[in-house]
Give the backbone structure.
Amino acid sequence: MPKMKTKSGAKKRFRITGSGKVKMGQAGKRHGMIKRSNKFIRNARGMTIMHESDAKKVLTYFLHG
């Protein structure tokens, strides 16, 4: 049997840490910044760790971890 291919969209959106957790970009920063507070915009910088229950699905279905 051939190997399973990783979903191309997932490759671009997620990273796996050394301990096996899934890192993702912060949500809510594509548009509509005028109605967001400066505190929200500041706190949504960079990457964040995905919740374990969601990360399990991402690893199983998209990244084949």
